[in-house]
Amino acid sequence: MVSAAGTNEKVGFNSWCPFLIFDSMQKLKELAQKIRKIGKDDPRRVLHSLKVGLALTLISIFYYVKPLFHGLGASTMWAVLTVVVVMEYTVGGTLSKGLNRAFATLLAGALGLGAHHLAALAGDKGEPILLDVFVFMLAAMATFSRFVPEIKARHDYGVTIFILTFSLVAVSSYRVEELIKLAYQRLSTVAIGVATCLCTSMFVFPVWAGEDLHMLVAANLDKLACFLQGMGMEYFGEKMESESLEGKSFLQSYKTVLNSKATEDSLANFARWEPGHGRFSFRHPCNQYLKIGAVTRQCACSIEALNAYISTLQQSHQTTTDLEFKQKVQAACAEMSMETGKALTELASSIREMKWSSTAGKHLAVATEAACRVKALVPADNSTLQEVLISATTTSLLTEVVRCTNPVIAAVEELSRLAEFKRPEHGRKAGAESPPHVVIDIKK
Amino acid sequence: MVSAAGTNEKVGFNSWCPFLIFDSMQKLKELAQKIRKIGKDDPRRVLHSLKVGLALTLISIFYYVKPLFHGLGASTMWAVLTVVVVMEYTVGGTLSKGLNRAFATLLAGALGLGAHHLAALAGDKGEPILLDVFVFMLAAMATFSRFVPEIKARHDYGVTIFILTFSLVAVSSYRVEELIKLAYQRLSTVAIGVATCLCTSMFVFPVWAGEDLHMLVAANLDKLACFLQGMGMEYFGEKMESESLEGKSFLQSYKTVLNSKATEDSLANFARWEPGHGRFSFRHPCNQYLKIGAVTRQCACSIEALNAYISTLQQSHQTTTDLEFKQKVQAACAEMSMETGKALTELASSIREMKWSSTAGKHLAVATEAACRVKALVPADNSTLQEVLISATTTSLLTEVVRCTNPVIAAVEELSRLAEFKRPEHGRKAGAESPPHVVIDIKK
Which among B39, B309, B326 is the nearest to A393, CB-wise? Predict the structure, then answer.
């Protein structure tokens, strides 16, 4: 028994040890692959990392070189701090943070000095109390101002630095003798830090938020086009729905467009701070990109509805009786889908090359013509049939909403189990017999 | 002439001056109203502002009281800095930032000391060079790690503080004699700052991110329900589409749901840091809320499609010929819409009260029954008509996509004018005659 256990242990150890090494080697390998992929997806990320290192190395020279060090004293540290905090991925981000930091420091420093002189009038005992009152009031007011959407969007960081600097200057005014010198040192080190960041950010492989926004908007249009052209080819095309669409990549790629608002907003916000560069002038119309983004998302929403309807349709098998009618509709749908896709591709490349062409409008006109052709298949004087068709569409859309509610119920039901919601007594008994929610299956 | 001009000026000044005062009074009034509205919409904002003031006042006492001050020296300032930077609106936000800051400071401080001892081996001249190499390498690697999505989401701030502290300790190790003392002071002041923030944040009117997420998810369900019930009453209801829906508030309120992902993600991210409180245990299933959010948005998307279709339909006037058929469809649609709305309301209140009820499933079952009833209006053996109906729906959805592309073209065209895109020579001439893009109007 003992020997057996011993053997087991030995075997366990021998087989375990290489396994552990192998396992951690495997994990390291995966991590390395992941990191390589992040760098490969956008090589500017590697450059940005090196740029941060460069900016920090530049600023630390200030510290090592004696004459520079003695001028500014220990507050050179503020310059290092500024570089780490202000350096952002895009030029606009760095500019936004840097200018916010510099101006907030200047303003708050001046106000802090004023508060110190005012508080000094109150005598030795009154000074700290008065200073505290000032700090409390200014901090509370400034914090509240961050809830104003316009300030939140553009000056959130500036307000933080404002509170910070005011508190630092006001509070330390009670102990530090040479307050003016402290304020001057802080301001100049912050200025040095911001200048270093801006130079590194703008002149060493700059990443412009405006250009990223430009490319993102074009890429989103391309994703929608990709779906429509894929549909036009694979679903409405000559294969006639014979193959299942499952697993096709074009069915998924447009979904990221639906959630692109936050990225677009933040890029546009940074782009507003950027000076003119390359093909972009200083007053480049950032807001127009946001408008394009909004209508693109609306388009993505109607594509989502189409996709949902088609994927439900694919699950039910339809028998074709009137082949001619079906072929006509199918051909028109293929044309609508392909041409709209072409129009969107055209728009994307028009944005990318900053060259307007009216081809997009022409493609869309062809698509519209195809849509009218389908409508003409139903004789205009047969108003009963037309009414039936409209009712059918409305009902289908509403049915889609009902169907969409099903997963919502399932998800909330799962939450109710995970978070241990209360359940009514009689419901628990009933729950044992019937499924927790009604599974709905509407046959098309 | 002169006197006339003089009179004019006088009149100008007299009428201008009160106008200026009036104008700025008006603006001040508007600002005050805006600020009051922000505070009224969520009174916790006012409390949060006061809490920031309170935390700062508490920490400044450290500075004023002599015994405390002498223990930590001038680095008490780090405590003030920590409070300003770490204090967030929600408890989860403060915890996330505070813990990130504390652990990053600890780790980077230790590494910085190690780097100092290693660099000291290289002699007086080699030391700054070696320190710079360390700072460059660590800053570059840490910055790159911020591009890893998992680190970006949860430890972005920690990485910043890591770079910051390491640079500060490593760089200043060249000049500062008592490095250990500096590192200890920095760590303890950061800890004091974080502790102050956490106490104020958790014990004085706490705002829990988990609870906000909980309420947001429920509110979003309510918004969808509001649309469906509004539609069921006003459009499908007894009034029979007689009135225009324009300007109804329920047509707009659900639109914010479409863009709620960013807010939900950030709240869930903060909520993960929060300890148990009230009805929420420590391991409250945050991810499940994100899942509910995702399916809710999908539901909102299909509602958007329905809304778009109906609003186009309202613009074209349909004559009713088969009143009986229409009434049947309308009644079924009203039931589908109302019952789905009720199901969503039920789910929202079930989340809010943390009490599961199976009523939502029952409402949805009624809605599904109504959907089947409409389908039954078309005889199942009439497969030609069924095919026509399916084709009609697919075409309608595709037409909606084509229609949605129209504003995209218009928006890109506007961008091309604002950003002065190149235009082909012959296009410019043609442009003078024809409108810049083809306006598409598909009659329903």
Answer: B309
d(CA A83, CA A144): 28
Q: Where are the alpha helices (DSSP H) in B272-322?
A: 286-315
Q: Kindly determine whether residue A258 and residue B258, on different chains, have CB atoms separated by under 8 Å.
A: yes
* Own/partner long-range contacts of B175-182 (Cβ < 8 Å, ≥24 apart): B175/A63, B175/A69, B179/B113, B179/B116, B180/B113, B182/B75
Residue A422 phi, psi (nearest 5): -65, 145
Taking CA atoms, B261 is separated from A61, A151, A154, A300, in Å, by 44, 22, 21, 16
pTM of the model: 0.84
Secondary structure letter of residue B402 according to DSSP: H
Q: Residue B132 is encoded by which pair of tokens? A: 């710079």
Contact A351 B54 (CB under 8 A): no
Distance of CA A126 to the CA centre of its chain: 50
Q: How far is CA A68 from CA A59, A185, B40, in A?
A: 11, 12, 52
A424 and B357: CB-CB below 8 Å?
Answer: yes
User: Of B206-215, B255-264, B279-288, B289-298, where does mean pLDDT reach its minimum?
Assistant: B279-288
Taking residues A297-321, what's their average pLDDT? 82
Question: Phi, psi at residue A178, to the nearest 5°?
Answer: -95, 75
pLDDT in tens, A118-165: 988 888 888 888 888 999 999 999 999 999 988 998 899 999 999 998
Least confident residue range of A11-25, A145-159, A253-267, B215-229 = A11-25
Residue type, B203: F
Whole-number Å distance between alpha carbons of B397 and B199: 55
Chain B residues in contact with A69 (beta carbon < 8 A): 175
- How far is the C-alpha of A399 from the C-alpha of A393, rounded, in Å? 10
Chain mean position to CA B179 = 43
Q: In sequence order, what are the residues at sequence separation of 6 or more whose Cβ sits closer than 8 angstroms to the Cβ of residue A155?
A: A100
Return d(Cα A414, Cα B313) in angstroms, integer: 38
SS3 content of chain A, % helix, strand, coil (to 5): 80, 0, 20
ipTM for the whole complex: 0.83
Distance, CA of B178 to CA of A61 (rounded, Å): 21
Better-scored residue on pLDDT, A304 or A69: A304
Put residue A435 in one of left, alpha, beta given phi > 0 → left and psi -120 to 50 → alpha.
beta
